[in-house]
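Renewal narrative, Specific Aim 1. Our central claim is that a sequence can be written position by position from structural information alone. The example that follows is taken directly from our test logs and has not been curated for this report. It begins with the structure tokens describing the chain, in the order in which they were read.
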């Protein structure tokens, strides 16, 4: 694929613009990025001569970029009107300034953060990656005011989404207050829960905080199998009640059912898929046991590679089917970036997810790009594909420690309240090591879909102590 950014003059110009976007122009008294965008769209004519020159040059470059990806000019104006895409665009150019042009691309700050908001949980799941404590929170968990300071830092860095998970986040009394504060700071809050505490009243309280996306864990349609994994009798019934309450509430834009693939439930995946589809959920995630936390000791229940391959094939069939039939249910693999290879091969390169958290076929993107998403997706896949850790996503632990991804709570990168997000994101040695996919060794380095997948970096580290080793969980 021809890379327009490889033209030296254009590359240097983009990096120059990017460096300026993080600054405030003293003459204009505004952030240069926002001032330039407002000027381009006729919302602000009060720019100094330097910013005016940069605005015209920036528009020229950006329109050429859109043209390269066959995006019509009027979509450019949609970008301006959408606050989320303004943040994305801002972080893309910040990434160019800080990290330069690279594949996969690294944004100037994480666009998405998954926050292990508490270690406290009302279940005792055998595979828990965060090693949560039963009905007991950690001594070093942030206070409400500290949690709000974290949100302030995330907002200042143009983070777009924060997913509150745990433990079980609904066990913290201040969850609704902090999620509301997140929304008030123009960050989209979302929630991951075991659903056992989701009464109809709780659904309303969650919605009132601005949460529009809820992810619920369901590991089997068998009560005994689900309860055995969760180690609490009655967990299945409570989870089903919670799911039904969320469905009946009917106001969430995104309702995700997440199933952890294991040796006791792999034969059920087609039945769980049909159940999720009939429920009216919007997404079905199949994740895997990760070799961290209690999951490290539960890896004996991971499925063999042949079984995993067959599950990936089934999911890929449904992924493609739902796209071609224009159905609303999206299917994704979590912790299994090789799912992209399954989709790519089964569809002869026509359909595959952009990354583990984004298919690219979501209705909102289809609308934004006037149905041209597939072409854009294919052209961007080398920049944003595979494991998102350290590229545009990271995790946050309950004490404010930044971690590579949510399951990697044992790998401390620095405390956000002491070091700030920008310093950790841009300078941390581990993150910069993870990002360097050109240094990946073993079979992942020779894989025909390396640019689409790259393997789960946490799994590589968890099983080999090397971030750049191959993902040994891959069935290919």
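The sequence written for that structure reads:
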């Amino acid at each position: 694929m021809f890379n327009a950014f490889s033209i030296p003059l254009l590359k240097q110009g983009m990096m120059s613009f990017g460096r300026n976007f993080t600054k405030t122009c003293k003459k204009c008294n505004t952030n240069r990025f926002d001032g330039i965008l407002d000027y381009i769209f006729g919302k602000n004519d009060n720019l100094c001569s330097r910013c005016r020159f940069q605005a015209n040059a920036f528009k020229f470059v950006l329109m050429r970029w859109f043209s390269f990806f066959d995006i019509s000019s009027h979509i450019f104006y949609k970008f301006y009107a959408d606050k989320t895409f303004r943040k994305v665009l801002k972080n893309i150019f910040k990434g160019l300034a800080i990290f330069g042009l690279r594949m996969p691309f690294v944004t100037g700050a994480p666009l998405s953060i998954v926050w292990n908001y508490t270690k406290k949980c009302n279940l005792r799941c055998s595979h828990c990656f965060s090693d949560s404590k039963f009905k007991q929170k950690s001594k070093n968990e942030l206070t409400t005011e500290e949690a709000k300071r974290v949100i302030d830092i995330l907002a200042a860095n143009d983070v777009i989404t924060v997913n509150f998970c745990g433990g079980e986040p609904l066990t913290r009394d201040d969850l609704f207050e902090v999620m509301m504060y997140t929304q008030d700071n123009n960050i989209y809050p979302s929630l991951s829960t075991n659903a056992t505490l989701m009464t109809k009243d709780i659904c309303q309280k969650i919605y009132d905080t601005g949460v529009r996306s809820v992810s619920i864990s369901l590991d089997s349609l068998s009560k005994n199998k689900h309860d055995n994994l969760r180690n609490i009798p009655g967990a299945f019934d409570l989870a089903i009640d919670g799911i039904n309450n969320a469905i009946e509430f009917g106001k969430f834009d995104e309702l995700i059912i997440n199933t952890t693939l294991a040796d006791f439930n792999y034969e059920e995946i087609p039945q769980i898929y049909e159940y999720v589809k009939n429920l009216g959920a919007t997404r079905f995630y199949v994740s895997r046991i990760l070799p961290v936390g209690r999951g490290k000791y539960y890896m004996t229940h991971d499925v063999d590679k042949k079984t995993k391959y067959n599950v990936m094939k089934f999911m890929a069939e449904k992924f493609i089917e739902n796209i071609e039939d224009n159905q609303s249910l999206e299917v994704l693999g979590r912790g299994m970036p090789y799912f992209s290879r399954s989709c790519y091969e089964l569809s002869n390169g026509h359909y595959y997810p952009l990354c583990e958290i984004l298919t690219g076929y979501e209705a909102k993107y289809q609308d934004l790009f006037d149905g041209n998403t597939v072409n854009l997706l294919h052209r961007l896949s080398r920049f944003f594909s595979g494991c998102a850790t350290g590229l545009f996503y990271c995790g946050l632990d309950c004490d404010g420690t930044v971690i590579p991804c949510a399951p990697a709570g044992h790998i401390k990168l620095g405390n956000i309240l002491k070091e700030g997000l920008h310093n950790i994101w841009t300078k941390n040695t581990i993150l910069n090591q993870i990002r360097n996919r050109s240094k990946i060794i073993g079979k992942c380095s020779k894989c025909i879909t390396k640019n689409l997948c790259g393997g789960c970096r946490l799994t590589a580290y968890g099983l080999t102590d090397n971030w750049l080793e191959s993902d040994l969980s891959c069935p290919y």
